[in-house]
Amino acid sequence: MININELVKSLNSLYDYGEIKNNTDLQYLIDQNFIRLIEDRLVITKKWIRFSGKVNREDFITSLLCFYPPLLHKLLKKAYEEACIIGQRGDGKALYEFIDSIPDFAETILNIKDKDIEETEEIKSFYQAVFNGYPQYPSILTKLKIMQLAEDTEDVELSPMGNNPNEIWVQGRRITSSVNLSKLKDKNKYTFTPYEYKDFPVEEKVAEVLSYPWKTFLTILSMVALEYQTAGFEGLSIRPTDHTNYYTTQPLDFYIFNTKGREIRVGRLNDFVYEFCIENDIYLFPDKVPEVDKVIFDMLDEHIIDFKDGEYVLNEEFKDLIYSKDIIIKNRSRKFKSTLKDYVEKLRNTL
Predict the structure, then answer these.
(1) Which among 15, 310, 332, 328 has a CA at the least distance from the CA of 174?
(2) Are 43 and 155 in contact (CB under 8 A)?
(3) Domain limits of the chain?
(4) pTM to 2 decimal places
(5) At residue 13, what are phi and psi to the nearest 5 degrees?
(6) Which domain of life is it from (predicted)?
(7) In the sheet where 236-240 sits, what is the strand order?
(8) What is the Cα–Cα distance from 309 to 306, expressed in whole angstroms?
(9) What does the H/E/C string look like for 97-155?
């Protein structure tokens, strides 16, 4: 019998960190392509990620619980039996709502409608977690509608996590879109979430940057901006929306200078990051726009980023540290930095 509390805990861990140790209770989600088993790790798939972008966290977790076959069959049978009662009353509108709500489950309903599906203690243990009590017909229909937002999609091959940005920020990588996760003591094998960077001995501030996906991203993006300036022209700029309170957390604007030297506001920094990830087949989980503008202000407090001449740039001391002592961010991010610059160049040439 499945322990529902442990199952919910595992699903929440997967939602946050993208992978966990193998748990046989989650085999049903492997069978339905929401997760995959790689060696001893369960890792989320593209199907999981795309579904996560369509619903909120609570609906996502409870929907995955409902995909557990014994529970799903019981819920479908309950809905069918209620629909039969509706049909006998002659309520055509309500009957149409039922039919319209379950197109993806119609075949399963036909297969189970004449079967006696026992309401076991295991099934009952799911009710509180999913419905906060005994499931009623309207809440079952609502849940079935949400579940059908999950669409099958072919997954892509995963490469193991490397120990530097060039090996981590690669096509197919799953990266958390959350900017508030706690660091793992040991990094994941396939997904990039905050972890205590111990791969190489580095300076404390460098380790802090490498421990967080979006601190790494913003540092390397700032290096791209610096290299444009070193070449003698502006390439990109991150600016506050409220210039009078530039140290106060706020939405940030992203500017690019096109090839004619004209400054163009591309949009919000957060949206630029999200579009970059889509363009380069980097999969954010949950599939939401990451609030990287908040990370900028954390980096201000840590003296990794400064506000200078109206924009957010690398702190001078941290910049000197990177270019004089560091080997990871400076030398082992060149490939990823080139990918970032190529994307900026594409925008510069089209704006």
Answers:
(1) 15
(2) no
(3) 1-155, 165-350
(4) 0.94
(5) -65, -40
(6) Bacteria
(7) 236-240, 252-257, 263-268
(8) 10
(9) HHHHHCHHHHHHHHHHCCCCCCCCHHHHHHHHHHHCCCCCHHHHHHHHHHHCCCCCCCC
